[in-house]
Amino acid sequence: MRNRNLEAQFTLFPIDTASEVLPDDAASDGVELVSFRELVPEINDTGYLTHAIYAYPAKFIPQIVRYAINTYTKERDWIVDPFAGSGTVGVEAYLCKRNAILFDLNLLLNHIMPLKVYRSKERLHEVDLHKLLEGMRESKHQFMPAWSNVAYWYPPEILEVLSHYWGFINNTDDGIYAPIIKSALLKVSKRFSYTEDRTPKLARSKRKLQAIEELLKENWREQLDEMLQSLSLKTLRNLNDFVVYTQQHHLEDSGQVEFHGGVDSSNVAVPRVCDALITSPPYLQAQEYIRSTKMELFWLGHTEGEVQALSRLEIPYRKADRMIQTETLDKVREMLTRDDLRKRLDSYFCHTVNALENSMCQLKLNAAACIFVGNPRIDGISVEIWRILVEYFTERGWTFEKVYEDRIKTRKLFGARKNKNPDGMKSEFLLILRKNAIY
């Protein structure tokens, strides 16, 4: 699920790119101008309940998912999301009494979902959390990530403290409280590292190096503990809010949420026929989600071998195994003068379409495929992803129903790198396709 705040990952494909404003006759293309925040006023905070527990470099805002669920599914339906990201579709499906099957290349999904869809009927107690945090501070256990250059990212004294905290929590079997602290420890471990924690990509910066140097002159241990306690308490309270919400809305027997992180959505077996697809593929120019979260994955116990293997499956590091051709895509391809850009374009559409097709094959007849995308630019050329997907799938038995255009009113743009489009992307689009033939 993609976040409008995601910083550019590649110079070639800056995410802060401006889409062309649709022409006045855009309605003839089935485009409907909307504001999903206005259409779903019951959600007034994109981070409500458990949505904000985990930091993630790309998030699907819940208003869009809620609208798609309300409009294109009914209670007890099964929804599939092949690009699950931070699990927004799973949370919203559960809250709306739907079932969901989530797939994502990133192993982080397996750690996210047990907290984000918290099914207990019992409220949690802050005193129990405090006891666990107190025990952590006296930890004699130690855990060091299986990461060959972990010392590059931390000053030794901070790494020593974090290794004891992680050692304690990894040797604690204390129900839901340990995962709560883990979620907070991930944020603390990034904040007190040399990586630039204000941007998604893992990278040391002069600003952050200087900030850590100054921090080490202060009472940094006390600040670390305060941040850990504050974040843990916030997550506990979010889970209690989730418990109250589920009770008030009679969700105790709500649907199932299956999640599978670390899988290739292009060929994973979808275990059942589904009633709808709701997803947001990675943007053309920002696909390094494994690399952006590898610090978290290492602290969670994953190995360099696991992380590297998954990283090689990320676009654009994966070669196209077939050529996707549509009228619009062919025109973009012809306009590009650089071979490396053509290869990246081909890789993106090959593997995005492969993953979509793999899940869409398991939809019922007349089911809706709801696909949220932007119109990025590549070498100054606007790429209408939604139109390319329409052209591809209508040739294969799908009906184009409509596309919603949601104008972006606020965004966070990053000025650290040169940006050919400093004003940012203007709109994003929710494409609706209907399955009307055996596919």
Describe the structure.
There is one protein chain. With 439 residues, this protein is an alpha/beta fold. It is built from 15 helices and ten strands. It has an eight-stranded mixed β-sheet with strand order 1-9-10-6-5-2-3-4. It has a two-stranded antiparallel ribbon with strand order 7-8. Helix 2 packs across helix 3, helix 5 packs antiparallel against helix 9 and helix 7 (177-191) packs across helix 9 (220-248). It is globular and about 65 Å long. The two termini are 25 Å apart.
Task: Reconstruct the topology from this structure.
Layout lengths: L30 E4 L1 H4 L22 H11 L5 E4 L6 H8 L3 E6 L3 H9 L9 H12 L18 H15 L6 H15 L14 H11 L3 H29 L8 E5 L12 E6 L9 H4 L1 H6 L4 H8 L15 H9 L3 H22 L2 E12 L2 E2 L2 E2 L2 H10 L3 E10 L19 E9 L4
Parallel strand pairs: 1-9, 2-3, 2-5, 3-4, 5-6
Antiparallel strand pairs: 6-10, 7-8, 9-10
Outline of the structure:
The chain is α/β, with parallel strands linked by helices and 439 residues long. Helix content is 39%, strand content 14%.
Main attributes of the structure:
single chain; 439 residues; alpha/beta; 15 helices
